[in-house]
Amino acid sequence: VRIAVIGVGLIGGSIGLAARERLGATVTGTGRQSSSLQRALARGAVDRVADTVEEAVADAEAVFVGVPVGLLPSYVAAALAAAPADCVVTDVGSTKRAVVTAIDDQRFVGGHPLAGAETAGVEHARADLFDGATWYLTPTDGTSGMLYERLHRLLHGLGARPVAIDAETHDRILAVVSHLPHVLANVLVAQAARTLEAGPHPPQRLLATGPSFRDATRVAGASSDIWTDIYLSNRDALTLQIDEAIDRLGRVRDALREADSARVTAWNDAAAEDRRRLLESQLAGGPLFELRASVPNRPGVIAQLALELGRAGVNITDMALYPADDMSEGVVALWIAGEQNARRAQELVSQLGFPVARP
Amino acid sequence: VRIAVIGVGLIGGSIGLAARERLGATVTGTGRQSSSLQRALARGAVDRVADTVEEAVADAEAVFVGVPVGLLPSYVAAALAAAPADCVVTDVGSTKRAVVTAIDDQRFVGGHPLAGAETAGVEHARADLFDGATWYLTPTDGTSGMLYERLHRLLHGLGARPVAIDAETHDRILAVVSHLPHVLANVLVAQAARTLEAGPHPPQRLLATGPSFRDATRVAGASSDIWTDIYLSNRDALTLQIDEAIDRLGRVRDALREADSARVTAWNDAAAEDRRRLLESQLAGGPLFELRASVPNRPGVIAQLALELGRAGVNITDMALYPADDMSEGVVALWIAGEQNARRAQELVSQLGFPVARP
User: Fold this and answer.
1) Helices (H) and strands (E) in chain A, counts
2) Which of A105, A255, A310, B258 could bridge to A164 as Cys pair (CB 3.0-4.6 Å)?
């Protein structure tokens, strides 16, 4: 498979490494910084370097755009303009509404792998970065089913777990599970630095901070080149989450002021329970079951199916599309982990009006 | 050395394991839960179990009290009442003012190891839990120098880095580097759970959350048996920190609302710089230099010396006290890492009025 990567940083470089190692792909890299491209070449993350987006995507079957969120619409549009008619173009940006709204092309599928955080740059790229990682995809009504399936299989080949989600839900959820944690880490690190400097201890040794502080501030001050765009492009959802956090903090403070031991305990116990459920929910699993559904071969159908299962919390582990000879209709095979999930998937696909069987 | 551990959980159990393995200590355990004591015995964290505090400390040379912060004053007092005249008694509580204020005995030194967080209970105890970990000690004017030195050496033998600090500063700093991170983790996990449940995705699979969320919420909902007391006993310092966090969050929100890219970038870059300095400050190091100071053999002198160096950010890696035969005066040897720190320590000790040399 021939892959183009536009923007070869931590994510783009890891895509290149994994695609070359695991899929035997030929990877062409391009980007804004020639020094990064040379490092990517030296590390084996790309086979060759192209000077322009046009040159990089000319014969590609799949294009990954890994530039800062604010630049995505223009780079994705440039890639689509130069890419072949049957090439899938995706991006790896941390917010999805802006780019998905800006692009109207059946070859485009928005994407976002949940991987990488503390480090940046191609020098930290790893072939196993995506192993087991959720990789959100945001197909729309206009998305080509054939190209969506190709991308899904590619990501599965990179070790990731592709999950379909609509762009709006993605951004709302990421505001609380990623962007707010980054904001809190920044606040905490700044506040701790000021507090420690204000004490009798001189700034040159700010005292040990312990494991909880290290964990809580690991992502503090992540690269502004990437994060200013993320914060701004999701600022409506993020400011709502910040307001809610302020409100919750105010309530904890009140309970503490009143030395209300029962309320503090109830609040803490509830957090323990929330954490337990969140961790539990991450554990997918069970043996794989195959479903085969007959679907019309038109844009949006595979997207609809993937989104519907995503909404129901049913994860598609792997996917294969077998178009009919006349391209008017085809069969999609879905592999679902767990007996119960497979049954639920069968129900849902059936409710969408597609004949479905477990072979 | 004969050690008693009162309350054999993660910390108490790890003290027992490390003391037995590394110091050949005989460890007696006691506590409120006989099931924990039996598990501690089975794991080899203690040599024997005593039914009462009195029995446990009867022939001890050092006592570690590891009960919840709210119970510390009564348990420490009980240990002191029953312990021999030359036995050092310490605790491992996460807040220090309450217990230090409650206890007036030259054999007592408040303590707090910065280790352990996500897990609790003796089943997670490890002999290497304290390796390289800061272990705060809060001696006072009344503290016996001989017993402080014994405790310092013991902790060094467990793998920890003992650092003297006054109880007030300890609690103020821990409010921001430990208690506030726990509060933020609780807030974040609760808020994320509510947001994810409110979406179209059902609670049974709350979607992947990514590495930044896992890091940020690792300590969420830590055991209420321990943490309600910690929060309440430090509520004055903690509510100030919560108020400051609310204020900082409000300012970030305002910059986002105004889509003020320059302000968001400046804020994020400042956090990166704060994090860099905080990380850098944790790296002690350099070769060890020995200092020898002549000190009068009376309570408070070693504490004064340790606190003075602690305030100056000079870490005492190891310490040994050689009392004169008539016990009226003695020599304390201090090992300090790094040429510059050693010079600074020499200055400070000299300024305190004690003759000091580098042998």
Assistant:
1) 14, 12
2) A310
H or E segment at A190? helix A180-198
Give residue for tokens 């000091």: B356
Query: Chain A residue closest to B239 (CA)?
Result: A253
Query: Are A75 and A30 within 8 A, CB to CB?
Result: no
**Nearest one of B265, B276, B207 to A118, comparing CA atoms:** B276
Please give the order of strands across the beta sheet that includes A2-6: A48-49, A26-30, A2-6, A62-65, A88-91, A108-113, A134-138, A161-164
Place of tokens 């290497």: B128
The predicted model gives B3-31 an average pLDDT of: 97
Taking contacts as CB-CB distances below 8 angstroms, the residues of chain B near A181 are: 188, 212-213, 215-217
What's B175's DSSP letter?
I
pLDDT for residue A243 = 98
Please, are residues B126 and B158 in contact by the beta-carbon 8 Å criterion? Answer: no
Q: Pick from B173, B242, B267: which is nearest to A195 by CB?
A: B173
**Chain B CB contacts of A200 below 8 Å:** 169, 311
**Lowest mean pLDDT across A103-117, B52-66, B307-321:** B307-321
Give me the pLDDT at residue B285, please.
Answer: 59
Helices (H), B143-260: 145-157, 167-174, 180-198, 210-216, 224-233, 235-257
pLDDT of residue B200: 55
What values do phi and psi take at A142, rounded to 5? -90, 0
What one-character-per-residue DSSP string does A53-122 give? Answer: HHHHHTT-SEEEE-S-GGGHHHHHHHHHHHS-TT-EEEE--S--HHHHHH---TTEEEEEE----S--SG
Question: What is the per-residue pLDDT for A50?
Answer: 97
Which one of A128, A230, A244, A249 would you mutate to disrupt binding with B, by most B Cβ within 10 Å of its Cβ?
A: A249
Which of A178, A188, A204, A264 should be substituted to probe chain B, the one whose Cβ sees the most B Cβ atoms within 10 Å? Answer: A188
Residues 6+ apart with CB under 8 A from B207: A134, A163, A165, A173, A177, A281, B196, B201
Separation CA B299–CA A165 (nearest Å):
67
pTM: 0.82
Q: Does B193 touch chain A (CB under 8 A)?
A: yes
Q: How remote is the C-alpha of A235 from its chain's centroid?
A: 18
Best mutation site among B182, B226, B227, B228 for testing chain A: the one with the most A CBs within 10 Å? Answer: B228
pLDDT exceeds cutoff 60 at B313:
yes
- d(CA A51, CA A33) in angstroms, rounded, equals 10
Alpha-carbon gap: A84 to the closest alpha carbon of chain B (Å): 33
The pLDDT assigned to B119 comes to 64
pLDDT beyond 60 at B202: no
Q: What share of chain B is helix, strand, coil (3-state, %, to 5)?
A: 50, 20, 30
User: Closest Cα to residue A184, out of B292, B253, B6?
Assistant: B253
Query: What per-residue confidence (pLDDT) applies to A201?
Result: 52
Mean residue pLDDT across chain B: 90
